[in-house]
Amino acid sequence: MDHLSRAEARRLSLAAQGFDRPHPSSVTARTLTAAVDRLHVLQLDSVNVFARSHYLPLFARMGSYDSGALDTQVFARRGRYLEYWAHEAALIRRDDWPLWHWKRQALREKYTAREAWVRDNPRMMRWLLDELAANGPMTVSDVEHDAAARRGPWWGWSDVKLGLEYLFAFGDVVSGGRRGFSRVYALPEHVGLAHLHDVAVPIADAQRELVRRSVRALGVGTVADIADYHRLKIAPTQAALRDLVDEGTVVPVTVDGWMRGSRPDIAYRLAGSRIPRRVQATALLSPFDPVVWFRPRTERLFDFHYRIEIYTPAPKRQYGYYTLPVLIDDRVVGRIDLKSDRQAGILRVQSAWAEDGVNPAWMAERVTPVLTRAAQWQGLGGVVVADWGNAIEAIRASVAREG
Known about the structure:
This protein has 403 residues and is α+β, with helices and mostly antiparallel strands. It contains 16 helices and 16 strands.
């Protein structure tokens, strides 16, 4: 069995995620879609302190780009991508819809069996489908307002939302884009999905393909890492990996320090995957970037303990509200809390921290150009640095020199 050092595992993982190449001189629609396709899923999140989470992985890998061009691809009614529970709420290729037929069926069976609300409200769910059929794609608020205006059957916002979310999980309703980041719900035929909607890839084949893609996107990962990428269960992930190993697509490896109890934890990589001799990158990572979204793997790979603190009361926060991990070359070396202050027209560095053993001045020198580009990308006039964190003085000095 092959054995990797932790540094080799980091470089292989980062190369798989696209960090082994320089930023393109210009970002075209083709460049954008190639980057999204490499990740397979782009996680959505509603927090918008610096920029919404799905924009950040592409900025980390390509630098500045037109986020409106991405919106055209991911939120247009008939765009290249649509939403589903492919990790958390995430964007997937429209063509991959049949790969998720098994999950839609599994969620229908699960919620029908376990959730009394689903069993008790078939009339409402039928009414929601009829509303969409009559009116076309609608948000939750659209449905609620339409019902009140017609003085017909009426349910409150929470019931409308719940019903649409169950129908979305079942695939009876799909995403028709976003409006002000509120999901627009649609019937499959509204978004050109009818021809794919009932195409069912057999569950074992679909899960094997999802596992193969997860291994390719991760570079190297344990069973738990690979299962998490598309939120599969452990048993089918193991079964898929056995098939992929038998056919020679995937090979098992061990990695320094990756243990399960007293034994090395078996990891997997694509056969023939190349480990770059070095990775040269400087990036701010979203909390929901695939590089760091599975926190146990983040700790094993980078020796970096990371939690976002948006639900932690302000006096108890250790690092900041929504800190972004700082990737420099093949290490995660710190974290920076950013806020786009659009009223003042500035990017605020609210805190900055270097990990133990990392020189704050070195980190600041590498990351300051990224902060400047981030401000420009967000249409802000400059960078203003606060006074919290062990790297904040170094960041302030570096920003002042660049300014």
